[in-house]
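Re: your question from the hallway

Yes, I did run it. Sequences:
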Amino acid sequence: MFEGVPIHWFLVLSTLMFFIGIYGFLVRKNLITMLMSIELILNSVCINFVAFNKILYPGHLEGMFFTLFIIAVAAAEASVAIAIIINIYRRLVNIDVEKMDEMKY
Amino acid sequence: MSFLLLFIVIPVLTVIGIFFSRTHMQVKWTAVVGMSCQLIMAGLLIYFFLAARAAGNTAEILFSQDMVWYKNLNIHFFIGVDGVSVAMIGLTSIVIFAGIFASWDVTDLPREFFTSLILLSAGVFGFFISLDLFTLFLFYEIAVIPMYLLIGIWGSGPRHYSAMKLTLMLMGGSALIMLGLLGLYFNSAPNGGPLTFNLIQISKVAIPMPAQRFFFPFLFVGFGVLGALFPFHTWSPDGHASAPTAVSMLHAGVLMKLGGYGCYRVAVFLLPGAAHEMAWIFLILTTIGVIYGAFGAIWQKDLKYINAYSSVSHCALVLFAVLMMNQTAMNGAIMQMISHGIMTALFFALIGMIYGRTHTRYINEMGGLMKVMPFLGVAYVIGGLASLGLPGFSGFVAEMTIFVGSFQHNDVFHRVCTIIAASSIVVTAVYILRVVGILLMGKIRNPEFNHIIDAKWFDRISVVTLILGITAIGMAPLWLSDMINNGLVPVMQRILLAGPIIH
Amino acid sequence: MIDFSYTIWILLIPLIVFVVTGLTGNRFKPIVTGIIGTAGLGVVFLLSVITAYKFFFVLDKVGGAFQRLLAFNHTWLHLTDKLHIDIGVLLDPISVMMLIVISTVSFMVHIYSLGYMKGEKGFARFFSILSLFSFSMLGLVIATNIFQMYIFWELVGVSSFLLIGFYYEKDSAVAASKKAFIVTRFADLGFLIGILLLSYTTGTFDFITLTGPNSPAFTSGQGIMFLGMSTMTWSMLFVFMGGAGKSAMFPLHIWLPDAMEGPTPVSALIHAATMVVAGVYLVARMFPIFHHEQSALEIVAWVGGFTSLFAAVIACTQYDIKRVLAYSTMSQIGYMMLALGVSGYGGEDGLGYMASMFHLFTHAFFKALLFLGAGAIIHAVHSNYMNEMGGLRKYLPITHATFLIACLAISGIPPFAGFFSKDEILVAAFHHNKALFAMEYLVAGMTAFYMFRLYFNVFWGQEQHYHHTPHEAPVTMTIPLIILAIGSTFAGFIPFTKLVTSDSLPFESHTEWGIAIPSILIALAGIGIATMLYMKKSDTSKKIATALGGFYTAAYGKFYIDQVYLFITKKILFNYVSRPVAWFDRHIVDGTMNQFAYVTNVVSDRIKGFQSGQLQQYALVFISGVIALALLFIYLWTN
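Structure:
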């Protein structure tokens, strides 16, 4: 299906997604958006895994499994994160990350 | 089992006893019983020690016991005493005994207070009987740490500041000591063989000179911080001023002696070559310290500050004498430690009692107290006279031994330093008489002081014990001096081997 | 051989009395303490007399000289292998003579005080400290070695301190006691340094070795010179400094006049008869060494001579009767020092030495008598100032008679005791140094003048208005006066040349009338002037004072030595040494330590800012770090 696509296309895509995710994580103040940024980062990693697996070890499936693991963990993590965010919202009526600086010195 | 172990076991048992006591009175009486045992033990120790010596036992260390503690690093639990440590144990037991009675009034958390106090004394006893550098250091730390709590919780004035300052400066000293001890450890077997912390073994080997030169300052300054070596003495005035009575007593009376004892027992004894080379630097510092402390005391207005500066001056004299490195001066140094220990404990006890009655420590606010509290007044005069070196009290014996001993040094520089240090006796007289004059004599300035009650029974026990100590040594110093001399012999041998022969 | 070991009890009895009365002072009635103290001293007095009798008249002489006996010796403290401090009893002519002086005067003063101090609040304390003083002073004179002397030297200093400050609620008494202690302490520092130098060079403290014919002090310590004088000379000068402090020699004399704040019996005992002559005794004790170091001895002579003149001048201007007596004491001690200073050693050359001891002996009697008489006067009129007195001879007949005897004795009128001893001093001075001799002639005249100025002002002159009629002192006070008056009259006939001489060998002496007669005439002239000026109320003395102008004012102000000292101590030592030291300690030494803490604090404050609680900041740092590391590794790998 992707026979003709060169590896660097995937790599460029994942790199772009990764840095978009990093940018979003660093810049957006909304916790939900930050969570979405993390998903972007994770997904960029997933793409790398799949792409390298396909090209370097065509007969193996470890990269695919890893991707599945990541998706599963990301789902679990997202649910925990959203639970935390909801709790934070209940306490602060706000999900702005800059307001949450209780854990300093 | 060596019965020396009891010196550590009894305080621990006392602490356990205090833990299970219910009322104030029980706590106090448990402490009294424990520390009386300690005092009796110290008396017995002196008796047994002298008896053993009289019976011809010439071993360097008596009543020793050696147990392996941590085999891999060759750390032992090695205890034993010689004449010097016996004398120091005697001092400690007297001061802690008097200290318990002097803190009879503590009502805040008495259980915790007495626990810390006795724990501290356990550390001090452990320090004096340890002959393994590792356990020595361990007990040193045990003695220093409770000080923070005692000052920080039960102190007065800027107690947090003082407690912090004191602890940090002493910890700084500890860090240097630690380095020095490690240096000794790794050089303890220059000809191969297992490394050791054993003080006696190390004293038998010749540590290479480069290592001596490098580590001597660490050890001397490290212990010197606790011994109020100028210019590392400033924890002392603040610390003493903020500490509760018994803690000041113990601290100035005993804890500062750990410094002097450490300088003598570890720095000079184990590194004699470097001590010879570098003595002049520290000699200048201590000579300054003697005069400087005395002049500093003249200007102070707070009784505790006066006494703290006076301690700086007297303790500098201890280090001064240790650095002279001849037997007489060293003997004087040990006697000065004992004499100053009891004397300053007496002073701090009296200051605490006066403060408890007048609620001020500023001499300008007091006056004519002799009339309303003759017992404490007379005791203060006795303490003052002892402090300025009046014959008949221990201070004279110690100072004269130091001065005569130091003056026997062949080197003119040392003799000039001796004369400078000796001139402190005049300055001491000035500040002591100034305080006595303002505080006790003249007319009563504050009419409220007319209703002051003189010493209660527990005050009297504390004061009388200490006064008996200074007069006993002052009247008949020969036995003490001989006992100390006995312990100094191996030390002197090593020093003489290492350096130019001193007259 | 006679056993003298009992003499240690001379020392122990007062000590025991002191300890017992000191500890039980408040339990008994005060009078009990007084009686215990007096009885103790009585026993000491008896023992001293017995000892003196045995020593001088029973004990065999060796080669015609009195022996020097170690009656008792016990090691008190070992210092080095050579040096050790002993406590013991050394009996030789001067120490036995001093035993007599001290125990007699002390006993008299004890009896006197029973009456004088009656009803005082600190009666028990007074007697207790008086015993301490007697103990210390006796220990000082029988010292076997210089360090024992130093020990007791300090102890007499402290008993003097305690007794001067007896009225501790009076500020002036407290100040005077402090001053006395600190000034003598300063001098004692010199003494200590002298001892250190001496023991370092000779390797012994022992008097018998030090002052014996083969003393190590004659040979050692000569090599090294400092400021043109040998070590031994310096050590003698430092020792003399100690003696000068205790004996109130110029310029260390300032404490003595103020010491009169103490009760009068104390002034009589300590500050007239015994403690203040300790310096003279010290020089006499070390005399062979002093004699060997002539330059030191010369200084002793000049200090003594100058002090005697200086004090006599001041004494002529003072009004406080006790102060007049104090300056007179200084002047007389100056005589004794001078006599030692001009003395040679051995046989008739040692005339000055003998004269000095002789004068010390007689002076103790008449000066104690003068002070006790002054005490009786003060007791009667409750004032110290002679211009508030007058015409007392009617009210105080016994005091008057005894006081007159003492005045004649101190003025050097034969046959009273002072004449003989003073005459010997003048003879010794004449043969040694004419300038000093002339000075002492002048002082002799002035002595007569100021003593009779005092006498006439108090007992003659215009009768003042008193609060109540003055009455004669009780019998406990008059008996000592009478006994001492007898002593002052007849002590001069004791053949001192046969008993106390520099080398313990007796020699013949003869009064040199060529010197004695002019000195009597000068004394009579002094008395005559005093009679003219003060026997009747007249303004002449005031006119003379005005005529003298500035000199009179300066003498009245004691030549402002006190002010100089005050300036040095209060202004310079306190303000320019002590205060800067205290400041330096707080701000520089402690400041440095605090700066360390401060810097640590600031740094940690900066560092803790990194932990801001801002999630994104952490992430940024983290990611920057990762990127930086990645770049670093790439760089490393590519090279």
